[in-house]
Amino acid sequence: MMTSRLPTVLITGATSGFGRAAARRFGEMGYALILTGRRQERLAELADELSQHCAVYTYSLDVRDSEAVVDMVQQLPQEFRNIEILINNAGLALGAGVAHQSSLDDWHTMINTNITGLVNVTHSLLPILLEQPKSTIINLASIASNWCYPGAHVYGASKAFVAQFSRNLRSDYAGTPLRITSLEPGLSESEFSLVRFGGDQDKYNQIYNGTNPLQPEDIADIMLWIAEQPSHININSIEVMPTSQAWDNFKVVKS
Ligand code: NDP
Ligand code: 8X3
């Protein structure tokens, strides 16, 4: 049974993890959904699952392709054009080795996805978001935006860009109905660590074994809370970790 239609949310990277959980959370509430990601079959499955709750439009999109992003926005059906919430979630880490042993291709992929892709989508959607009476951008940054760890080099730097970009957008749009949040999760269980380690299930298990990590549904609940704040409130940033995680000491290397 479809509930009454709430505003439209566009989610990048809706095929897995945080993005898919957000689609379910917002969709079950009755928000209209624009779901994007590269894996079309997963988008179709999710649309099938959620169409009993809400209006759903899917679009197969690689956020790195700026022309494809523009095409996606131009092709939006009329009933999905009034986007009020943008969840810039698509992103990835590749590898966690020491910098000089890392692949330059992996570095480029992280930069092109986490930075260029997020900028492509934001630039295309800002005019629409600014036309709405109330609108929200939630950018998926990370604890790696704020803190260092060995092997984070380009991934962490790309997420630092996301956090600072979010703050700078706040400066541009202060006093307007557009709110911007940098959401900065720590250890969270999703396909993220499979992607990071090239599908290596043992490494994936090592990351999570003995911990009680955040789940995508936890992050989706936080996203919904951010979006549903009264219009005069901007949540600037949220850094969130599982209780199994905390900061480490500064590194001291002794000779
Ligand atoms: P998942 O790997 O489960 O999901 C990543 C999503 O990003 C997928 O839907 C994938 O879709 C999409 N994606 C990747 N590359 C592209 C691309 N070029 N174009 C479009 N979509 C793309 O990871 P999470 O859900 O955990 O991660 C979501 C976000 O949260 C990322 O930005 C990540 O950096 C960040 N994050 C994750 C944390 C974690 O520990 N899991 C903690 C902090 C932040 P598809 O492959 O179908 O294109
Ligand atoms: C993902 C969290 O700690 O693996 O952004 O960098 S971490």
UniProtKB/TrEMBL annotation:
Pfam families: adh_short. InterPro entries: KR_dom, NAD(P)-bd_dom_sf, Sc_DH/Rdtase_CS, SDR_fam. PROSITE patterns: ADH_SHORT. It comes from the Bacteria. Keywords: Oxidoreductase. Its EC number is 1.1.1.313. GO terms for molecular function: oxidoreductase activity. Belongs to the short-chain dehydrogenases/reductases (SDR) family. This is Sulfoacetaldehyde reductase 2. The gene is isfD2.
